[in-house]
Amino acid sequence: MKKIFRVNIRTLSITEGPVPEAFQRLGGRGMTSAIVSTEVPPKCHPLSAENKLVIATGLLAGSLASTSGRLSVGAKSPLTGGIKESSAGGTVGQALGWLDVAAIVVEDRPDDPNARYVLKVDRSGLTIENMPELAGLGNYDTCDTLREKYGEKKTSFMTIGPVGEMKLASASIAVVDREGNPTRHAGRGGLGAVMGAKGVKAIVVDTEGVKRPPGHDPKAMQQASKRLAKLMADHSTSGETLPRYGTNALAEVINAAGAYPTRNFATGTFEGVHKISGEAERDIIIERDGAPEHACQTGCTIQCSSIYNDEGGEYLSKGPEYETVWAHGGNCAIDDLDAIARMDRLDDDLGLDTIEMGCAIAVAMEGGLIPFGDAAGVIRLLDEDVRNGTPLGRILASGTETTGRVFGVSRIPCVKGQAMPAYDPRAAKGIGVTYATTPMGADHTAGYAIAQNILGVGGDVPPLQVDGQVDLSRELQIATAGLDSTGLCLFVAFPMLDEPEVLQKVLDILSAYRGETWSADDFADLGRKTLQREIEFNRRAGFSAEDDRLPDFCRHEPLAPHDSVFDVPDEELDKVHEYAR
Amino acid sequence: MLGDQITVFVNLSATLRVYQPEPTENGLYAATLSSASTVGALLDHLAVPRDAAKLIFVNHVKRQLDDPLTDGERVDIFPLIAGG
After folding, report:
1. Which of A248, A250, A452 to mutate to test the interface with B (most CBs of B within 10 A)?
2. Which residues share a beta bridge with A191?
3. Which end of chain B is more exposed for a tag (fewer CB within 10 A), N or C?
4. Is this complex's ipTM strictly greater than 0.85?
5. A274 in Cβ contact with A478 (< 8 Å)
6. Any idea of the CA torsion for A36, A40, A44, A46, to the nearest 10 degrees?
């Protein structure tokens, strides 16, 4: 039976209980948003005792379904002030699934600001230890120390770096990959700061003596999982271009579409994209004996991750993802992949959301802190200012909006305080609708209209037209909220959009693994209900329709090469979540 | 432009890189075609199978196989791609 651990981090008391009846069919984002929306006072300060850090496994966690180990983390966000769910790959989601853990809820705040708690979950339950010696360590050193203490064979970790300990709004939570490196992050929304405010430095999951749960109907489970893996292998995105070129396969396409935000969203194409593309990245990785195709979690058949070695052939980081290459690359006019990989390593080590950090630096570049293109300057800002917590480092790590204010910049690419990702909404208006209206703040994964706007996956809705974008974004946001509850990777959505059998197999797997009946309507209802909870939390936190807007420059500054502005009317934006009101 | 010929500048990406001729200008290949050429004719000129080219942008706008090309345009050609 699945269980929920509750930890009061002030009294250090631990309770273990079953999943409440009302939450039985929830997982991942569905679970975190249900707990946060019912238990966290919407107007509380995100770093206060009243906020809760909720870690939830997906409905399929621990199963043999490919990619089913995504891990969700939720809380009230220090970056947006609204509800937040951020998910990560890596090994912790599956490990917690093996241990039948549906969620861990960390409550209250420690009396001792110097405490650095480590929560350990294993087959006997959950225990807490104080390891003040971890204070100030980067995620890489933290993981090394944890490995020495807890062993490495059956353990996996989620950790925060110094930025989380400083409780800054760009702080991420790292999850280790299969090599034990802290490279997969619940990046967005500053959840690392919430973990830091709870005094929790790490969560250790140990699966010693535990076996994979076979699920309710192992035979049906095996058949459906095998078929799903085959369908994913047969689709040319999840089966060919994603494994071969990684997420950064997108750089050339988005640039070709004129939607690659460059120099802090000043233009839509980057002249140096060829040097930082997925193709260039793959060539470097192969030349240096890195791993061009790599699974970030056990059992993933897509394998879109990679391992990036430095000039000397030594491990440097995972292959930087599309968003990271863009945020630190095109958006800062940097065309040096080695420098970007070094920034990726620093972000992972310090515990930073690469999107927020890249956007903050680009805004600071526009404000004159350092010139666009100054890669050495960026590395210095990260490795010296942010790592040491200088006032400048703290400003940058507090996010793009704060940085923009400090440097007197008017083009601040944020929605609800969260920086926009690597698609300019003026050249892809469907994703603009998602940025504006998702309860998460600007977030491409919440309703990835780029698939239909640009990639020709799941149909075509031309990117520059207004018609159809609102309906597209709504449908995608609902389906995504459902998918985010399963623990499956969002990249299952690409074959799902083109091949109806994929959704049926996901439903078959849900039914077989959990001993429940799941229909397409159940799946959509779960998505709608999750969004309703999130929107209602935000409303009670003080958000209104006026917050579901893009920053003003998107309506007034035409973007080259299309000279387009974002012109989806406000009243149309207000229709996206009409069903939820 | 030479008489009834046009030149377009081509970039092939991802799995279609194998069809990319040696770049001649700014990392792009300058393809010379007859002036009435379509996108499809360019693919034939490059020996790219028409059903392998899923995304074609001409001067940053998505185009189809029977759309005409004009002199000096940039053409980006992709297989089906995803990421995020």
Report:
1. A250
2. none
3. N
4. yes
5. no
6. -40
Mean pLDDT to the nearest integer, B17-34 = 87
> Rounded to an integer, what distance in angstroms lies between the CA atom of residue B72 and that of residue B81?
26
SS3 A248: helix
- Report pLDDT digits (tens) over A518-553: 999 999 999 999 999 999 999 999 999 999 999 999
Contacts of A561 in chain B (CB under 8 A): 59-60
Report CB contact under 8 Å: B83, A444: no
Q: Do A279 and B17 touch (CB under 8 A)?
A: yes
DSSP readout, A152-175? SSSEEEEE--HHHHTT-TTB-EEE
CB contact under 8 A, A454 and B78: no
Q: Is A188 helix (H, G, I), strand (E, B) or coil?
A: coil
d(CA A199, CA A401) in angstroms, rounded, equals 26
Cα distances from A450 to residues A264, A427, A431, A454, in angstroms, run 20, 10, 6, 5
Among all residues of chain A, which has the CA nearest to that of B57? A256
- Which chain B residues contact residue A277 at CB under 8 A? 13
Q: Which residues from chain B sit within 8 angstroms of residue A451, using beta carbons?
A: 82
Burial class (CB in 10 A: 0-12, 13-18, 19+), A289: exposed
Give the strand pairing for A101-107 and A155-159.
unpaired
Is the overall model pTM greater than 0.80, yes or no? yes
Measured between CA atoms, the residue of chain B closest to residue A245 is B14
